[in-house]
Write a structure and sequence with these properties.
By secondary structure, this protein is an alpha/beta fold. It contains ten helices and eleven strands. α1 packs across α2 and α1 packs across α4.
């Protein structure tokens, strides 16, 4: 097996379809099918339980080979990065696992500035909830993680940002009136849901009056802007253009602000890869210098 075979298995593991895989890797379908048959003969295994018009289903051995192919592609990427760096050029592919909210509100500015400094570096970015990203960074599927909440992580980590969780509304609201007001909820990281739900139970004995549930905090904010209700959001969603909205910071029973944090995660041995080391240092400096305070009411 070689890099081309690893790539075939990687894409096939994602697509679960011969036709779409052939299109992505620029092979004809007969050529791809023939190569898969050759692999089965070389390895002495059956890759598929089912292969038909609706797609494919891997055998247990086939799933093992997909995982192996992905691991080899990741190792090859790391080796290429090290070899290129030894020539004096900082390049290669950074594999980043990033919380969806960070990817939406923070990452574009970070990558724009980092790319200006290191134009030869490319990116493979996965966005997901923090719990899933932890596993990806732990197995080195991703080299660097930027996640939300308090991570159960024994390797290198650094808090990049700690933001307040706040009530967002188009008009001033009193906290004690919230159960009677229309609330807009949204799908988010389970760790944030637990924080908000725990605060609510401390404050009120009745459930919220939920008008609607939307896919993410940005949509919830847009609904608030149009006067449809209030939302409880992390302040990362707020920009300078949102000064017309009212923000009331959540406080707990001890009168301390309810917060949610962003963390940078990585394995120390991966700092031997110059692109990883450069990105870690850059992110640390960027957050220290560039993250504004958005918590004050207008």
């Amino acid at each position: 097996m070689d890099e081309k075979d690893w790539r075939i298995l990687d894409v096939l593991g994602t697509e679960r379809n011969i036709t779409r895989t052939a299109e992505q890797i620029y092979l004809s379908q007969p050529t791809l099918t023939h190569r898969l048959q050759q692999l089965e003969k070389e390895l002495g295994i059956s890759l598929f339980v089912y292969r038909g018009r609706r797609g494919i289903e891997f055998t247990e051995q086939g799933e093992t080979m997909v995982a192996y192919a992905r691991e080899m592609l990741e190792r090859l990427s790391d080796v290429k990065s090290r070899l290129v760096s030894q020539r004096g050029d900082l390049s290669g592919t950074l594999r980043l696992g990033v919380s969806r909210s960070v990817a939406l509100y923070r990452l574009p500015a970070v990558l724009r500035q980092f790319s200006e400094a290191y134009p030869l570096i490319e990116y493979d970015i996965t966005t997901a909830i923090s719990q899933d990203l932890l596993g990806s960074v732990a197995t080195q599927k991703e080299q660097i993680g930027i996640i939300r909440g308090i991570p159960h992580w024994l390797e290198q980590k650094e808090m990049l940002e700690q933001e307040q969780v706040c009530i967002l509304s188009a008009v001033p609201v009193a906290v004690e009136e919230l159960p009677q007001l229309r609330r807009i909820t949204f799908t988010t990281d389970p760790s944030l849901s637990r924080i908000i739900d725990g605060w609510w139970k401390q404050q009120f004995s009745k459930p919220a009056n939920v008008l609607m549930h939307v896919d993410n905090a940005e949509i919830a904010k847009r609904m608030v802007q149009n006067g449809l209700g209030y939302a409880i959001v992390p302040s990362i969603v707020l920009t300078e253009d949102d000064n017309q909205l009212y923000r009331t910071a959540l406080t707990g029973a001890d009168s301390e602000a309810v917060t949610w944090s962003t963390w940078l995660l990585y394995r120390e041995e991966l700092l031997d890869i110059p692109a990883v080391s450069a990105f870690v240092q850059f992110v640390q400096q960027h957050y220290r210098a560039s993250i504004p305070s958005l918590y004050d009411n207008p």
